[in-house]
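Reviewers asked in the last cycle whether our approach scales beyond single polypeptides. To address this, we selected a multi-component target totalling 988 residues and predicted its structure end to end. The input consisted of the following lines:
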Amino acid sequence: MGLISLATFFPVLGALIILFIPKEKLSTIKIIALVFSLGSLVVTTFLWTQYQYGMIGINDESQFQFVEHLAWIPAFHIEYFVGVDGLSFPMVWLTSLLGFIAVVASWNIPKAQKGYFALFLLLDTAMIGVFVSLDFFLFYVFWEVMLLPMYFLIGIWGGPRREYAAIKFFLYTLLGSVLMLLVMLALYFNVQDPVTGGHTFNMLHMMQQSNHNSWLSRFDVRFWLYLALFIGFAIKVPIFPFHTWLPDAHVEAPTAISVILAGILLKMGTYGILRISYPIFPDIAKYTSYALAVLGVINILYGAFVAMAQSDLKKLVAYSSVSHMGFVLLGMSVFTSAGINGAVFQMFSHGIITAMLFLIVGVIYDRAHHREINGFGGLAVSMPVYAGVASLAFFAALGLPGMTGFIAEALVFIGAFSVYRVLTIIAAFGIIVTASYVLWTVQRVFLGKLNPKYESIGDINGRELFTLVPLGLLTIFFGIYPLPILNMIKVSLNYLITLIP
Amino acid sequence: MNNLNSLQYFLPELFLSASILIIIIVDLLLKKDKKIITAYLSVLAVLVAFFLAYRQYNYAFTSLFEGMIVLDSFAVYFKVLTALSTIIVIFISMPAFRRHSEYYILLLVVTLGMFLMVEVNDLLMIIIAMEMVGIISYVLAGFNKFNMKSNEASLKYVLYGAASTGVMAFGFSYIYGLTGHTNLFAIQQAIVGHSLQPLPVFIAFVMVVAGLGYKIAMVPFHFWVPDVYEGAPTPITAFLSVGPKAAGIALFIRFLITVVAHPASQTTFIQNVQIQAPLLLAVLAVVTMTLGNVSALGQKNIKRMLGYSAIAHVGYMMMALVVFNTRGFTAIMFYMVVYMFMNFGAFWVVQSMTPHLGSEDISAYKGLGYRHPLTAVAMAVFMLSLTGIPPFAGFIGKVYLFAAIIKQNWYTLAVIGVINGVISLYYYAYVIKVMFLDRDEEIKAISVPLYDRVLLWLLLIPVLALGVYWGPLIDLAHNSIGFFFGN
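The resulting structure, written as structure tokens, was:
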């Protein structure tokens, strides 16, 4: 078994061990969850040190790293095929990082801790699995397995409307994934394995246009398959108008799960488009690129305006995710080097920043037991450390230079401006809206007169700082020195855009 | 082959017949408090029949009793499957039926009937075999004779059954009139050889579909299902949704590939005369699954919900009938095994929990996830597997069904199929929601006997294992269909 498999399945091993521990031994359960999620992070960090920056990946197996390629069900041509390249590795590392941080953030989860941590570790495995799979069937299995723990984590440990939010999330995302199932099967039957001549689930074979048969070369067929796949991914991103599950799920989910939802799950949508849709249907990607750019701009502006109207802090952060994912879409839609690198960098950057924001909301909710923005005021007086960390996160979300968000958005704008000038100018307006809702929020929560109710509120504690500080440092580090990430992704992404006609 | 020589290939059936007679006599000699021994003997008898049938797997294609019955790997596959379903049902019944020993003997008779159903090769034998299963099923459905609902279920079952058998027999008379044969292969040759008019063949086909459709609970012949499933004793409901249904589907496939179609190549069939059978089956599949799923949405009683879900699953399986090739039939045969485990699992949870919960309403399952976590988790797995979510076996089964139709470009059907899957999530997830998301303030733990837990694990393990490694089973199903082409 290779290191990628170890990083993927290490958490679920922890879940199995937890199942055999009596539920009264609370600290043992937590420590196991901690150890096994940390183990995954250690392995992926080690992989980063071994990562070879020059290798491309995308559609050439020999250019992937840490590849494991085994037969699983030979009769149906299903393989256990995993590996990473510049597109997937930042996401894999981010997933294992946020997985670990979310375990720490879940330390005081109120009830049924055994089930919580077992499900969480299963979720962790499924998420890493999605990012490392290179066999479509395997990808699909991980993609759907993710839904199960998510349903329970929102539905059992969530807020007051958790049942509604959980089933809505489940139904919405299942609808998206069954469409993907059909596309997967259509590709299976119409792509020829160049070696054996049989059918194949191998994504890399699907990307070679010469393996497509005549049916799969027809424009209308490709268009509909692309569209079905796109809806599946769009629901996950979520792209307007498929976003309605997001505010419910994010608001009702417990803090750590919101972190995972916004930090990782949303990125799976754009990752899927880049990993699967673009290389398999490059012509349709080109054909529909303007629509995608428009959807991206709608996401940016709609998300930002709706965020501004929110009175619930968590809902505000949730809609800010919709807005920030719009930058990813805009960057992806232009097929310029700066644009697509900016998009993937934004995926990484937003994963860290939004995780911080949800953690910050969690900190205040644990103390005040509400999230009404107007119900606070002057918290900087009673919680100075918290106010400092929170301001850092909010400024990062705003795209302040010196932090990752700025690099990502700047790259997206540079890349997009030469292609869609008007759209980019409209999108840039979103930055102003973002700045206004972020600053207005900071002002209402932390500045002004201290609400007397919160005079004696406790400042952020050590455990909470432990979850936030590493993320804050990463935002600043990669904001000043983004090359480790950019060097990793650019080789793969610059090759990816050459596939687009 | 003549009658005398045929007997050596008829061992499982002969053994079952002898066991039935012996067990009846033994049962008469048993004291009232020892009646459970009949159940043990019945399990033993079916187990032996199971192995006898399994040994026939590698026999070459043989036509028995002057062509009334055929022995082939397809028949053996379904014989083994139905025998297994009877064994599981006996185990499910044992805690509840400790005195009513005749119950187990009736199950043995149904098993014999199912064995015949999957190997018939003659119109008359079809009626005999189906009635053998049918009549005993009526009795079993009404087995709780002091329960009004059980009585109603039985009566409804009889009336619908009689009507549909009549229609089917009428259809058979058409076929006989058109071809002059009752042997299925002879009918096939006659239809192909004389290039008959499509219309009378179509009418006959529709009438036969009515009879077979009733057996497998296909819309619009499903009206008996919800009432019978709710009213019959739970183990019988479970049994009806698996054993006789599997036999019915086997019979349906055999009818389709003889009277309706003939082999065109190594893997595909072509219709004997152009009667648009695939299109008709596709429409019926869509109607069946959609109506099953939509009706299941609002159900309060869990057995009724599972009844409608059983209709929906027939719809899924029928999707793969439309392609008339080995890929489709293999997918159905695979799905039937998967369906057996997950459906029995769900019914076993209902059966073992009803005494503790005091009701068959879904709302009674409130907080089960905290009262007895193992049972609730297993139930959740069965529900999710029925929905078709990985990594459980139901997902793999569905993938094969969809793969079969997508291979033949039935995209509209496939899209309707997957959307049905999403609809079904709502009512399956409702059970999960009630068990885990709704929670009582005080948790009254349930203690479940060891026997119940062991049986639960035995049904749970295949659902989990077939979800991650199913290669051998799909190969077995695939090989069992190959004989149609002389492999």
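Residues 288-501 of chain A form one domain. We regard this as preliminary and will revisit it once experimental data from Aim 1 are available.
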